[in-house]
Amino acid sequence: MPDGHLETLHDIEDFVRGGTFYGTGGGGDFDRGVKILKKHLDMGLSLGWVDVGAIADDEYTMCPFTMGSLATITDDKAAFMRTFEIDESQFGYRRGEHLADAAKALERYTGKKASSYVPIELGGGNAGSCVAAAAKNGVPVVDGDFTGRAIPEITQTLPSIFGKPVLPMSSCDAWHDICFIDSAVNLKMAERIGKQISVAGFLGCDMAGFMMKGSEMKEVVVPGTLTCALDLGKAIRKANEEGHNPVEAIVEYTKGYFVAVGTVSRKDWYDKDGYYWGTHEIVGEGGYAGRTYKIWFKNENHICWRDGKVLVTSPDLISIVDARTGWPFTNNQVQEGDRVAVISTRCNERHRTKEGLEVLAPRAFGYDIDYVPVEEAVKEW
Hints:
Radius of gyration: 19 Å
């Protein structure tokens, strides 16, 4: 029996809601994750996960994931898509629909059968889509993921950091165009090629990679994270139902830290190279009044300043939630005028190693900023 079950729409929404918080602004849309999982539940498929220890060491595992930007499709891009006889109105729903097909394509290409799937990251869309793909293909999904949060690049996953090859990798876009990346000069080039395929697919593709034995997977997985996502989503919902403060419930469950509460006063963003880039500016309220906060994102949130001084950075998590309901936002949903709370939580310990910081601390994004663990940084707030 699976260790975790999604048996109702409530379960699905709780799971995707919790995953969206850990997605730190990225990791795929809440609506996409719910739609895909509900579709598979309505088909009578079993949705859930098993403990990492249930996976045999000598069996192959695989990682299906989506790649691309969360940026909205502009009118100009929609017009360009129509020149390819593509219906852009279906794009958002189709993204993630072909993870199961990408996984099957990789099996055909490698001649290896995967007995289980592992999500590449947490996030409402990516983790939910992986669970759905596993259900569709009749294999278990592991209660864990390869990052413990969401990240913009495969170079920042734990398998990549600790030497597990992502290639070969399959890709299937929203219109079922399939291709493979067999080899690349290095991991950064593999990321670049994959992102360019997602750009060709108009902002996103469903992909599969990290084919490895169970024994190797166990060396680099962050265990128990799908259960954490489900439990956090339940905590947020119950706090709302019972009249408690849902934002405080998030901080309590995650052992996190309040960064700010206020109103989004400005948002700047652009879409480039398959990533969603930009900044949010927040004017503090209540105990945060008189302060101005700025958050920089590349798909996910990575640096937060207060009045020009750095407060917290990746690899620790920076999540934006609705200040009243605690519902977490992906960055494409944040709008000027939204009243929000910003919460930071600790990343997994392996991203705090030398190898992890090299790819996910501020200097990896071109900022001359030292990483300070959030539990130490908070002492100076």
